[in-house]
What does this fold into?
Amino acid sequence: MKSMEQTPRLSRPFSWLRRWRGGNRPGGDHEMSLTEHLGELRTRIIVSAVTLTVMSGVGYFLANDILRLLRRPVDPLGMLVFTSLGEAFFAVLRIALLFGLVAAGPVILWELWRFVAPGLEKKERRLVGGMIPVMCLLFLGGMAFAWFLMLPVAVKFFLSFGGATLKPMLTLSSYLSFVISLLVAFGLAFELPVVLFTLIKIGLVKRETLRRQRKIAVFTIFVFAAVVTPTVDIVSMALLALPLWGLFELTLIATAKAP
It folds into this structure.
């Protein structure tokens, strides 16, 4: 006798979980069990971890060249100094890890995408899949924007307060912290169009609502910039907030025909 018991239906916001839980992997002809799902998750994590380790290793061997590149904005000041025994070593590790994260980022996103894609509908797969290369390009674009435009301005601005009576002696760790924080902050901030575009496409946010609440959105952008920037001065906040504001306006233009 067949059982009349049925699996409880999930609410609409969690419908993707039902499809993922009972979905097939591409090329498969059977439903995957929880153990098989966990096994595949393990594979994705291992591939991502190995890629990150290898790229970080490459970054370690390139650390001196990367450091020479990063210190160009302060080259006229002479050599950077370190004030503790392990400071230079840990600085090299930070550079290697940053290089590894940037270089392995596309692979990590791809592995994450391959794991969750079968649980999405065709329309959702097309939307999210198309966002991955855009996310990578925007992140690199944000870092490039910070490096070529914002960092020289910020360095010049801060050094100007020394005047003729103070001599700057920048430590390696403090300078790297400033540069890395600025690069990562701009890289993440430039993902704003992807976030807004996705929210509009899936119907969680309406474009007209964003347009009507533009003042609140701009205020939120400046608050976010004040929290994320590595320093507390208004110049650093503006250097991040103004490009974000521009990206917000461009997103509204790009989604003018979005349902």
Observations:
- DSSP finds ten helices and no strands in the chain.
- Residues 1-29 have pLDDT under 50 and may be disordered.
- The longest helix spans residues 122-159.
- The radius of gyration is 23 Å.
